Amino acid sequence: MRYNKGELLSLARQPAEKAAEILMRVPKKGSVLKKRLVKLVVNFLFYFRTDEAEPIGALLLEHCRITKEEENVFSISFLEDPERKYCFECASEEQCQEWIEALKRASYEFMRRSLIFYRNEIQKMTGKDPLEQYGISEEARFQL
Amino acid sequence: MKLNERSLAFYATCNSPADNSGFLYKRGERHTAYHRRWFVLKGNMLFYFEERESREPVGVIVLEGCNVELCESAEEFTFAIRFGGAKSRTYVLAAETQAAMESWVKSLSRASFDYMRLMVRELEKQLEEMRWGMAGGYGGSQGPVGSWKPKALGPEQLPERLPALPAILPKENSCAVWYNVPGADRPSDTSGCSGHDSEENPRPPPVPPRRRASSSEVGSARAATVESSPTFYQLHEQYGRQVAELRQEWLERR
Question: Which end of chain A is more exposed for a tag (fewer CB within 10 A), N or C?
Fold first, then answer.
């Protein structure tokens, strides 16, 4: 699949919502945990070899499942193949929970559901559509 | 750089609703010929397929940070997706009608994750302002947002405030949002009668009873538009806590 690599690399260099050195294992036969710089930017999770400027890879975090595994460990898997897991071993249980929470909220789809929820709540309370002033009430992406 | 292509393809073709879709002509990178492709916009990802029935996209354009502009071109209804970088590529697309072009330009220019996040925060802020305004008339008219929100509201703090969203949205969720508001967890700040405001959470002291009565007229006017019982429950809890606080304070002072 072709993609605009330049823009994705540029995204990877932007300030991250969350970044840390975490042990990571990709779902490939025989792969082991390796120390990676893991960086969350919008709905992408980039992972770098420490001290390298360009990421080894990027995961688009849509339609994914974040699962707490054993202690300090969480995994990311995708809907089309839930057994194929990217595993992350954190330094502490606290760090693990923080990443799980952050990643669960890192998808565009989650943002969209939040927006629809708030829009609905405000509409219930005021009888007015809060998106109307922005002229975007009819946009497909904001519909229930 | 590896991309989880299989998951991307799944996202592109699964039955989650697209934000826009349709045929567009895409100008080639080197050759200026246009190729008709089936485009599907989901979130901040613009996928394009060779045919509408194709099982996998030919490619995807990550739209984060892009600008969408109309084009001066011999072709009708052209527009461009531009990025900021030095070596970045500009995608020139052409729609088949004026209406289609306008629809695409609109949806593409609002497709970024950042934009969506901004809207969510804006509405979240509005909702919480409204709830505070209703609860005790605490300078509701002045918009106390700045006074009770934690100062640096980074994305890390956002998780505390956003409720978990079930498929059906029960009223209990609005309670959850309410109790997750930092102010609600630190009721000691509300007994500002003693004149002490904590530094990290400066909030105006509770309005004295007389003024509260008049502002509660406003409050009750607003409350009249809300019949939902959690709102009453929230008010009940809030006032109950204040009373308990004041009573405690008085007992300690004796």
Answer: C
